[in-house]
Amino acid sequence: MQAREQISEIRQCPRHGYFRGSQCNCGSPGRFILSGFKAEKLGRIISGALRHFPAELGLKLDEHGWANIDDLERAIAAKYSWARREHIEAMLDTDEKGRYEHDGERVRARYGHSIKVDLDYPEADYDLLYYGTSEEEADRILEIGLKPVNQHHVHLSKSIEEAVKVACIRTENPVIISIDARKAKENGIRILDAGPVCLSGPIPPEYLKIE
C-alpha cells in the first residue's frame, strides 16, 4: 500500500520565496503561508483537479492539460473557502516531486493523469531508463511488459536511485528493471521527457531486464 504523503507547513522567505518546513535554507523563518494539514488537503485537490476529475470541479483543461490558474482558484475555493491564489502558487512552486508546471497564468500536471490529455513534451533521449517495483511484480512485468495502470502513461525514472525511491513507497525490497530506451525509440516506441520522469505507453518485455 502506498504510504500517505506528509506535507510540511509552507512559509515564504523574503529573499528566496516559498519553502516547506520551519526555516529557509538561508536561515530565515519566513512568513507563514499554510499549515501542513491545509497543505495536504490543498495538494490532494490540486492533483485531482489537474489529473483526475477537473469536470467535477467545473474546471476546463485544454488539450495539453493546461488550466487557467484563476479558474483553478475558483474551483478549489468552492470546496475550500480559505484557499487563495497565493496558497495554490505556494503549493505548485514547492512541490518536491516536480509534479506541476506553472507558466504565468497557466498550470498543468506534468504526469500522473487518469484523464486523457496530449502532453506535448519532447521525446526522451536516453540509453536506459528505470522502473522500480516489488519482487512479486517483477517477474510478471518481464513476462508481459510494462503497461499503464490507472494512468495513461507508464512512469519511468531517469536514474536507478530515483527508481529505488519510487519503489520503496510500495515495497521494502525493491527490484529495478532497466528499459533499453534507445532501442525502444529506434523501433518506434514513443517515450516523452516530462522533466522529473519520462512517460510512455506499453513497453514490450524484449526491452526490459532486471538490473
From TrEMBL:
EC number: 2.7.1.-
Family annotation (InterPro entries): Ptrans_KptA/Tpt1 (IPR002745), RNA_2'-PTrans_C (IPR042081), RNA_2'-PTrans_KptA (IPR022928), RNA_2'-PTrans_N (IPR042080)
Keyword Acetylation in annotation: no
GO biological processes: tRNA splicing, via endonucleolytic cleavage and ligation
Protein name listed in UniProt: Probable RNA 2'-phosphotransferase
GO molecular function, one term: NAD+ poly-ADP-ribosyltransferase activity
SUPFAM superfamilies (alphabetical): ADP-ribosylation
Function, as annotated: Removes the 2'-phosphate from RNA via an intermediate in which the phosphate is ADP-ribosylated by NAD followed by a presumed transesterification to release the RNA and generate ADP-ribose 1''-2''-cyclic phosphate (APPR>P). May function as an ADP-ribosylase.
Protein family per UniProt: Belongs to the KptA/TPT1 family.
Keywords: NAD, Transferase
NCBIfam families: PRK00819.1-5 (NF002015)
